[in-house]
Amino acid sequence: MPKLLNIFGVMPKVFLLVIICIPGQVVANPASPLPCIRFLKSIAQKQDKPYLELYALSTVQPEKAIKHLPKVTKMLLPDYSPFRKAIYLLIQYNIEQAEGDDDVKVQGYISKLHKLGEETQIKWIQAEASFLQAVEWVDKRKYDEAAALLDEVEADARELGYVSLLARTIKWQANIDIDHSEYKKALTRYQQAYDLFIDCGDTLQVAQVLSNMSTLYIRMEEWPKADLYIQQAIEIYRKHNFSNPFAEAILYINVSVIDKYLNRPQERIKHIKKAMVLASKTRSFRVKLTALMNLSAVYLDANRPQKALENAMACLKLAEKVGEPRGVAYCNESLGEAYFKLGELEAALKHTSFARDNYQKLGDRKRYIYISNLIADIFEEAGDYKEALKYYKTYANDDKEYLFDVRRKELFDLQEKFDAKVKEQEITLLKTENELNAARIAEQKARENSLRVGVLFILFVLYLLYRRYKDVRRDNEVLEQSNAELTTQSIQDPLTKLHNRRYLQQWLKSAPKHFKQPTSLLALLDIDHFKAINDKLGHDVGDQVLIILAQRLKETICCDDLVVRWGGEEFLLIINTCKTEAESVLEHLRLLVSDSKFTTNGGEITVTVSIGAAVSETPEALQENWESMLQAADKALYNVKSAGRNDYQLSTSSS
Questions:
Q1: Residue 342 DSSP label
Q2: φ, ψ for residue 646 (rounded to 5)?
Q3: How many helices (H) and strands (E) does the chain have?
Q4: What pairs with residue 562 in β-bridges?
Q5: Which of 302, 238, 306 is CA-nearest to residue 266?
């Protein structure tokens, strides 16, 4: 799982499926690589030009701006204009933000800018000071305070016509939206900011927005889309020779995460090392934390746990120093993985359990799911299979469904809101036309007293209404079909195309009508060592194994039987059979998997399963005692896995 900060505002929880459409190329070749200073130029004096030029340079190449700063400082006399003083403070802020490491200095520049704005009552200076303060609050995760301040800045920027500040504000509002999992709102705002930066010619900000969008798709585990946006951001950065360690470190952190999931190990090492060098030049502890966590992950994947441990310890030391709770949790997770690789299971369990508790407090569901799987691995390695099974279930039940549910819900919400809006407009229009036409008919009758004209007019209106009725009815049919498709998606597993748990609940309500035999067999089937398949051959091969197994199960059961994807690598079957044939059926299912190899992109592999089962004497008993039967089958499955796997067990208790 990626451990990534979007330094422009949020930590991803990797993972709504909303696509931003930017016509033609995603990047539109802005006219100038310099930041947008259109508004500032419009209110500046002729003698302010050197300051504006240095302000632009401090944004795109802060190390060059440092060389010119002493000269400009000498020119700044006490009686100089508030405009020039404000620009000077912004220059110092930009340089310290990109190249320095003194948080006190940065806050000092913001305070001075705020004081200057209050003393002069110049709105653009006040707005810039508020914006910078909001950015600092986001970095410290004070999201509520930052959001309220950004709303005020947005209103001021719109009133002033300060396009650059407006675009920057919208971008940071989107960053906060992502941390709150408001993906649709975030993408809409990124689109607005992108368009404003393109129009204003601010190329560096265009690259940063593309980087942010890449981070969003990283959280959604949409790796090709994430790669598309990050590569375009890097291309812009290189083309214009920007040199901003803060911004550049973020780009290479993002691309190193994408490298892992697109199987580019050499590029990943190169990019994370470059990010580490750049991170050391910035004052942002979050950039440094992220780089350390990702470097630790690289060493773990390269089977160098000692190096991973060293970087994870440095990460935790920094996180504790700055008092960053989420960073502390992430660094403890990295330590736990490193200790696990080194075989120090007690230390591994200590750090992973600490991280899991903190993820639960922080409401970070995705990391909570992932750490549950890691803890299960630790218990299994220690031989405590009972505890391992408990944590595996947390992972298996939640992991795959989490991402699908998030995306499906966002898609459903989008369609529901769009359709409702369209129908509301059509109904309003139809009512208005009805009222208007009725009034016209009455007026015509009263004025002309002509029955023929009135009848013809009524027929014409009825014809129009009928056509409108037909159109609305056709749209309703489309809506009903769309809703039916969404219903199908909600009861079908997207990977294997089998039914899921939701469908099973519906099926059980009418269970008696499905049975020809009085008894039925409930079986829980779990793929043995499935995690090893994912780790050694990749998640694509793991997905192929799930699809092939689902197909085999679907082909072997009768039409009245049921097979569902229970979660992760676990399947549930309900088979209508005689009680005396139950064990034969279970052995047939086991051999169905183990006797024929699975042909995958990783070659032909042997797969085995463990099966736990229970028998129901009547269809009504299956409905009434569903939970106890499920527990009996689950216990039998646990016994099989504890005894060595690749076997079945039929529970002695029946319902």
A1: T
A2: 55, 50
A3: 26, 7
A4: 574
A5: 302
- 8 Å CB contact between 40 and 246: no
Number of CB atoms found within 10 A of residue 350's CB: 15
Cβ–Cβ contacts within 10 Å for residue 601, how many?
Answer: 10
C-alpha 486/C-alpha 483 separation (Å) is 5
C-alpha distances (whole Å) from 113 to each of 68, 106, 120 are 21, 11, 11
DSSP code of 34?
S
Q: How do residues 339-390 score in pLDDT, each as one tens digit?
A: 999 999 999 999 999 989 988 888 777 788 888 888 888 988 888 888 878 8
449, amino acid identity: N
At 411 the pLDDT is 40
Instruction: Give me the residue label for tokens 């995603």.
Output: 26
Distance CA 168, CA 132 (A): 10
Single-letter amino acid, residue 595: D
**Which DSSP string corresponds to 137-182?**
HHHTT-HHHHHHHHHHHHHHHHHHT-HHHHHHHHHHHHHHHHHTT-
Helix (H, G, I), strand (E, B) or coil at 324: coil
Q: Which residue has the higher pLDDT, 162 or 12?
A: 162
What DSSP letter does each residue of 383-419 carry, written as one string?
Answer: T-HHHHHHHHHHHHHHHHHHHHHHHHHHHHHHHHHHH
Task: Kindly list the strands in the beta sheet with 648-650, ordered across the sheet, starting from the edge strand earlier in the chain.
Answer: 562-567, 570-576, 520-527, 609-616, 648-650
Q: In the structure, what pLDDT confidence band is assigned to residue 255 with cuts at 50, 70 and 90?
A: confident
Those residues with Cβ within 8 angstroms of residue 599's Cβ, 6 or more apart along the chain or in another chain:
548
CA proximity to 367, closest of 382, 354, 385:
354
Q: What is the DSSP letter of 499?
A: B
Residue 603 gets the label, from left (phi > 0), alpha (psi -120 to 50) or beta, of left
Of 652, 515, 629, the C-alpha closest to 583 is: 652
Tokens describing residue 457: 């007019």
- DSSP label at 47? G
Strand 648-650 to 562-567 pairing:
unpaired
Regarding beta strands 609-616 and 648-650, do their DSSP bridges make them parallel or antiparallel, or are they unpaired? parallel
